């Protein structure tokens, strides 16, 4: 199994801060309780604005390097309503195209992923190469006079960075990942996500607004209550929080296991397998949660469903080894199955009930505690993203 040789310094920093918080019996907090109007989860107009501003105009993680290893590898990303073909071309670059034939709009493929040299339309066999260029147009002489050079696939801004492939689902839009990810790039680079190996994927749909489901990933206040059977090895109400990005829109958290205490009296120079004593959760705005463990990465991406009251969670889980054995893959699969059941039967069950209560109109608002900083950060960033109201202030950690 992989040891925590990646991001050693950052991991030690997290361990040191967690040990300090544990000794003080506290957690990172923000300055005040945050109130969220129920309408943020119910309002149709806001929902449509989110679909545009957050899911069409913001860089999204549309794939991971590990999902597109070889030239010709592709993945379909359709969760936003735009059918996007993410492809690795012959030169090894990641590209994103609208999965729509330039003849009469048919989808070039409906396979969720695969590998091929060209995309040939099932309707009249126009075919496109891995750079999106129209490579062949059958019966060209009969079709009429068109300039093939102008009939390539509609391309979307796309860039691969730190093992993730980002795209903005608006043709011609600017994408500035330097500022988007500022302050977090060293850490993200250090995880070497590009070395990971995909083990499996699964979806989880629930009747609830997508943000309510996303909220359930942002705090550990609920661990010893909702997940009392599974998380008793975790330290209660203790978490390390750091935000990054040009707008403070992303963050990472570290949640300690009780076993971290074992390191308290060991000199740092002798610390081993430090990451095995806590989980690290990254949030990449607006919808990607990555839980990093020494051997595994599990990704949850939450999308608005067909209505304001529906969401779709796409999950993928990876080995952090480049070439894991079948035994390791099975172990990861088993671990993920347990985790999936917990999410489905506990987190998403609560979420579905809470959403019904919000829909009943009986609750004016819900609350995020000072001890749930990532929720406040998330909703400040989402509010700013949709321009509903300016974030009142940047809320940094002020107490511990
Ligand atoms: S719609 Fe694709 S070839 Fe006609
Ligand atoms: Fe949970």
TrEMBL record:
A Pfam family of this chain: Rieske
Record has Cell inner membrane as a keyword: no
Keyword annotations of the record: 2Fe-2S, Dioxygenase, Iron, Iron-sulfur, Metal-binding, Oxidoreductase
InterPro entries on file: Rieske_2Fe-2S, Rieske_2Fe-2S_sf, Ring_hydroxy_dOase_asu_C_dom, Rng_hydr_dOase-A
Occurrences of domain Rieske (ranges): 61-167
Cofactors demanded by this protein: Fe cation
Lineage: superkingdom: Bacteria
Entry's transmembrane regions: none
Any one GO molecular function term: dioxygenase activity
Name assigned to this protein: Phenylpropionate dioxygenase-like ring-hydroxylating dioxygenase large terminal subunit
């Amino acid at each position: 199994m992989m040891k925590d040789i990646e991001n050693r310094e950052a991991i030690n920093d997290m361990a040191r801060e967690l040990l300090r918080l544990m000794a003080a019996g506290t957690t990172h907090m923000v300055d005040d309780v945050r109130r969220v109007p129920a309408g943020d989860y119910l309002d149709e107009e806001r929902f449509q604005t989110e679909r545009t501003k957050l899911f069409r105009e913001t860089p999204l993680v549309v794939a991971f390097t590990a999902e597109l290893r070889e030239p010709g590898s592709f993945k379909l990303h359709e969760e936003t309503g735009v059918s996007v073909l993410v492809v690795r071309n012959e030169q090894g670059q990641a590209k994103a195209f609208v999965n729509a034939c330039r003849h009469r709009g048919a989808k070039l493929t409906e396979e969720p992923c695969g590998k091929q040299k060209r995309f040939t339309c099932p309707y009249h066999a126009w075919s496109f190469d891995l750079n999106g260029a129209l490579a062949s147009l059958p019966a060209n002489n009969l079709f009429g006079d068109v300039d093939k050079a102008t009939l390539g696939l509609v391309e979307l801004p796309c860039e691969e960075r730190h093992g993730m492939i980002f795209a903005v689902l608006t043709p011609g839009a600017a994408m500035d990942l330097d500022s988007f990810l500022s302050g977090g790039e060293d850490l993200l680079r250090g995880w070497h996500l590009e070395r990971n190996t995909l083990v499996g994927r699964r979806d989880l749909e629930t009747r609830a607004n997508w943000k309510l489901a996303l909220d359930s990933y942002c705090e550990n206040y609920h661990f010893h209550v909702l997940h009392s059977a599974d998380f008793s090895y975790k330290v209660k109400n203790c978490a390390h929080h750091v935000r990054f990005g040009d707008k403070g829109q992303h963050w990472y958290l570290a949640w300690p296991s009780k076993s971290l205490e074992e390191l308290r009296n060991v000199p740092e120079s002798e610390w081993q397998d430090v990451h095995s004593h806590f989980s690290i959760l990254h949030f990449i705005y607006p919808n990607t949660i990555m839980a990093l463990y020494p051997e595994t990465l599990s990704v949850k991406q939450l999308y608005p469903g067909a209505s304001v009251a529906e969401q779709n969670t796409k999950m993928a889980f990876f080995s952090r080894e480049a070439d894991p054995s079948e035994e390791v893959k099975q172990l990861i699969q088993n671990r993920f199955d347990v985790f999936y059941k917990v999410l489905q039967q506990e987190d998403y069950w609560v979420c579905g009930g809470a959403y019904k209560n919000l829909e009943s109109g009986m609750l004016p608002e819900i609350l995020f505690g000072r001890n749930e900083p990532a929720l406040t950060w998330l909703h400040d960033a989402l509010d700013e993203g949709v321009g509903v109201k300016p974030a009142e202030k940047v809320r940094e950690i002020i107490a511990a």
